[in-house]
Write a structure and sequence with these properties.
mainly beta, 4-stranded antiparallel beta sheet, 3-stranded antiparallel beta sheet, 1 helix, 7 strands
């Protein structure tokens, strides 16, 4: 999961749940990155074809302000978990189980492929939080 000022990078996605109790909520909440691979995340997910670039801005123009949230301003957090396909054994080591903000920059392309495979997610293995300030 990747959050900026406590806001999930999928919060403003146009790709939404169409039925069930989460109807209208973002369809995605996590980025799946294969072992040994990397991802350069360019901005807020809008569709699987493009994102709106991250931009540090005054709080009033921030994503957090648009959602009425100010609890984690000035933070960027990435959390990491193992992932495996449903029905597979989990990897070894798994157990059950008014400042500034980041707003919206210019739209840019970022092509992604939807992972529709049913997955299970393990325990949190690591998290990185970066505190930033506007120069």
């Amino acid at each position: 999961m990747f959050t900026l000022d406590g806001v999930n990078s999928f919060a403003f996605s146009e790709v939404r749940q169409t039925k069930g109790p989460q109807r209208g909520e973002p369809k995605y909440t996590k980025w799946v990155i294969k072992r040994g691979k990397s991802l350069t995340l360019k901005g807020w997910h809008k569709t699987n074809e493009y994102v709106d670039q991250f931009k540090v801005t005054d709080f009033g123009e921030s994503a957090a302000a648009k959602l009425g949230s100010a609890s984690e301003l000035g933070t960027i957090t990435a959390t990491f978990r193992a992932s495996w396909y449903e029905g597979e054994d989990p990897p070894e080591g798994e157990q059950p189980g008014a400042g500034i903000g980041v707003g919206f920059g210019e739209r840019t392309t970022q092509r992604v492929r939807e992972d529709t495979a049913p997955r299970e997610y393990g325990v949190l293995r690591a998290a990185i939080t970066i505190r930033y300030v506007k120069p």
